[in-house]
Design a protein that fits this description.
There is one protein chain. This protein is of the alpha/beta class. It has helices at about 20-30, 40-50, 65-75, 95-100, 115-120, 145-155, 240-250, 250-270, 305-315, 330-335, 360-370, 380-395; strands at about 55-60, 80-85, 100-105, 130-135, 155-160, 170, 170-175, 180-185, 195-200, 275, 285, 290-295, 320, 345-350, 350, 370-375. A seven-stranded mixed beta sheet has the order 1-9-8-5-4-2-3, with helices on both faces. It has a four-stranded antiparallel beta sheet with strand order 10-12-16-13. Strand 4 (about 130-135), helix 6 (about 145-155) and strand 5 form a beta-alpha-beta unit. Helix 1 (about 20-30) packs antiparallel against helix 7. It binds pyridoxal-5'-phosphate. Pyridoxal-5'-phosphate (PLP) binds near residues 62, 162, 184, 186 and 195.
């Protein structure tokens, strides 16, 4: 491929421009870079909350920090269990471990790539305190059954929306369906402050800690010094919030453009046999963090990883799976490399948790059989056509039947 592709790694694939520059200049001129003395972080939090139609948001230093603040807010007990998908960023799981909680991995749905709601109750115990749902690749989870389970068992739902800005489920924006919505503003997400995050909340419910204090050393700032409970410092800076304010204005168009090019790509891929794009649940709308599709391995003469290598040789940046294997297969979790040699919290007074391979067979197959394409708001018709052409060409090279039939 001769065409240059926009990338989120630099300005070619980012919406950073004059608006951000003006906002940042304002902060620099003011000499106030810290949120506790400034106005930009507060302004960004309010603007973000308003955009999502919720009463408040708390800005954080990363998406991982946002998820950690959300768990601190829930005030779980050490040894409590949190249900989570094995196909997500490790940033979803790290906060669970830091909070002394146990990640309980529930397998994904083969077609939607999101946590399979029909499996969740099999994994519920009296120690289950929350479900963290990741709307993976921008596609919403099937929230109705998940919220029903949470309601019946009186447990919390945290939505990890790091990849799903403005994705919708039955009309509702994701992040506003569960108790808390967490976002990442890291460089690769729909909008960015370099690093950064946000927690939004619909309301204060029974869990009862003040969300802001969960990212601010447990310190109610209306007093000279007081620390009410253990919490880290996860502040966003004024400089980041300045960028965030300008970026937020561009979010609608970013999502609109990603949807448009993804729709075209789906149309072009539509006739390819053995290709199954991520299924969007009924009533769902993806915001296309990535475009991910499964291949039926029986239709091809080589493994998906070989097909991807061939695409890469054609100058096409694609990956075999978002992860090499489900999260529990990475050393941190597999060998329980946590606090010293303790294995805590996977080893504790409550017992010992070990993650075996094939814990989640569908997720394991998913990693081997999917092609993951990082999506971008600056993809043009030419980019999309070039990608589709390359895929068609490479797939045809490895078709089992020489005669390529068309899907009806
Ligand atoms: C990016 C991401 C995170 C972590 O966010 P950071 O800002 O990198 O800490 C968590 N969950 C998902 C699904 C992500 O994509």
């Amino acid at each position: 491929m001769k065409l240059a592709f926009p990338t989120h790694r630099d300005r070619s694939g980012r919406t950073i421009g004059e608006e951000e520059w003006l906002e940042v200049q304002e902060v620099l001129r003011s000499g106030t870079l810290a949120y506790i003395y400034g106005k930009k972080v507060r302004k960004f939090e309010l603007a973000f909350a308003e955009k999502f139609g919720v009463p408040y948001g708390v800005a954080t230093s990363s998406g991982t920090a946002a998820l950690h603040a959300a768990l601190i807010y829930l005030n779980t007990e050490p040894g409590d269990e949190i249900i989570v998908s094995p196909i997500t960023d490790m940033g979803t799981v790290i906060p669970i471990l830091y909070q002394g909680n146990i990640p309980v991995f529930v397998d994904i749905d083969e077609e939607t790539f999101n946590i399979d709601p029909t499996l969740i109750t099999n994994y519920m115990t009296p120690k289950t305190k929350a479900i963290i749902v990741t709307h993976i690749f921008g596609a919403p989870c099937d929230m109705d059954p998940i919220m029903k389970i949470a309601m019946e068992h009186n447990i919390a739902v945290i939505e990890d929306c790091a990849q799903a800005f403005l994705a919708r489920y039955k009309g509702q924006i994701v992040g506003t369906i569960g108790d808390l919505g967490c976002f990442s503003l890291q460089q690769s997400k729909h909008i960015t402050t370099g690093d950064g995050g946000m927690v939004i909340a619909k309301k204060d419910r029974q869990f009862g800690r003040e969300l802001r204090l969960c990212a601010d050393k447990g310190w109610p700032r209306d007093q000279w010094r007081d620390h009410l409970f253990l919490a880290p410092n996860y502040h966003m800076t004024e400089l980041q919030a300045a960028v965030g304010l300008a970026q937020l204005q561009k979010l609608d168009n970013v999502v609109r453009d990603r949807r448009k090019s993804a729709r075209l790509f789906s149309e072009l891929l539509g006739d390819e046999i053995g290709v199954y794009p991520q299924r969007i649940v009924d009533g769902g709308e993806s915001s296309y963090f990535s475009y991910t599709f499964r291949l039926d391995p029986t239709m091809f003469t080589v493994r998906v990883s070989e097909i991807v290598k061939h695409m890469n040789r054609e100058g096409f940046e694609a990956h075999c799976g978002y992860l090499d294997h489900p999260l529990y297969g990475y050393k941190m979790l597999r060998d329980r490399v946590t606090f010293g040699k303790s294995g805590f919290p996977l080893v504790g007074p409550w017992g010992s948790y070990e993650f075996q391979e094939v814990l989640c067979p569908i997720a394991e197959r998913h990693c081997r059989e999917t092609i993951y394409i990082v999506w971008n708001e600056f993809f043009t018709v030419e980019h999309v056509e070039a990608m589709a052409d390359t895929i068609t060409k490479v797939l045809n090279n490895y078709r089992r039947n020489v005669r390529v039939e068309r899907k009806v």
